[in-house]
Amino acid sequence: MMSPGFTGSPLDRADRVRNDAEAYGALLADWRARVLGLDGLDPRVSDAGGLHWHSMAELDGSEELILLGLSDDKPHFVAVVEATGDAFRSPAIWRALSMLPAEDAAIYGTARSLIEWHNNHRFCGRCGHATLLFRAGWGRKCGNCAKEHFPRTDPVVIMLAEYEGKALVGRQSRFPPGNYSALAGFLEPGESMEEAVRREIHEEAGVTCGAVRYVTSQPWPFGGSQLMMACIADAQGDALVLDTTEIEDAMWVTKEEARAALEGASDRRFNAPPPFAIAHSLLKYWVSQ
Can you name the residues that pair with 12 across neighbouring β-strands? Predict the structure, then answer.
């Protein structure tokens, strides 16, 4: 199975220096240090088709910096920028992700997740006072009560229900015309991954499922930091009762129809998710089985 998008970063995350002020200071002073180039939240793409990096000299000194990691002992940083709006829906981000090599997309995904986390945790959840960046950007500490806050990921299940050789795909109203994907939803407290898969499929499509098989996972950096856990569930019937507040439409597709969508065939029944989305990997895996 192909590696899901946003995985395979080549950077050493260098946890060992995050609490070592002297070692971290040396990285900040390293003339080889590079900072990720961004246009707002979108990645800048270099002439070579990869991420654009610039030197520390181009910063004004007021930025909050996150240490993304090391490559051949060369430090790589990203500056925290203000996150506004739903930038994932911009055409620019889709174009960039279609161009970037997988390793660069993984680096960008980490940076994007951390930037959004910092923007959402500028104030302490315990006392409401301002927080300050620490641990090389991998945490924030309250300036009043000293509460420490660390980046977290939200678990999400994304799944195909399978029945008699067909898989269930659905679409939300915000999807581009003709686009369908796997169903998905957040895990709730006190719920296992398998229980969440069965609950979400039943809630959104009215389909009852039995056995659930885990396939793979993917970090997803948009709208917060999420861990997408891809599964296939055995459906006990194919009758659909849609929750139209969640999905606009759903349908059962054959492997031939899914393969045509993945290949972009002219006679395809629907448009598949983009290659960097785990739903694409999940469909491709299902077709190959």
Answer: 70
| CA angle centred on 102, ends 11 and 4, rounded to 5° | 105
Question: Tens digits of per-residue pLDDT, 178-203?
Answer: 999 999 999 999 999 999 999 999 99
Residue in the structure block whose two tokens are 């959840």: 125
Token pair in block for residue 271: 């448009």
Answer for the pair 144, 124: CB distance below 8 angstroms, yes or no. Answer: yes
Q: Which domains does the chain have, with CATH numbers?
A: 15-120 (no CATH), 154-288 (3.90.79.10)
For residue 168, give the nearest of 185, 155, 180, 156 by alpha carbon.
Answer: 180
Nearest CA to 284 out of 171, 176, 182 is that of 182
Q: What does DSSP say about strands 53-55 and 34-36: parallel, antiparallel, or unpaired?
A: antiparallel
* CB environment 253-287: b (16+ within 10 A), e (fewer): beeebbbbbbeeeeebbbbbbeebbbbbbbbbbbb
pLDDT, tens only, 223-261: 778 999 999 999 999 999 999 999 999 999 999 999 999
Residues sharing a CB contact under 8 Å with residue 25, sequence separation 6 or more, in sequence order: none
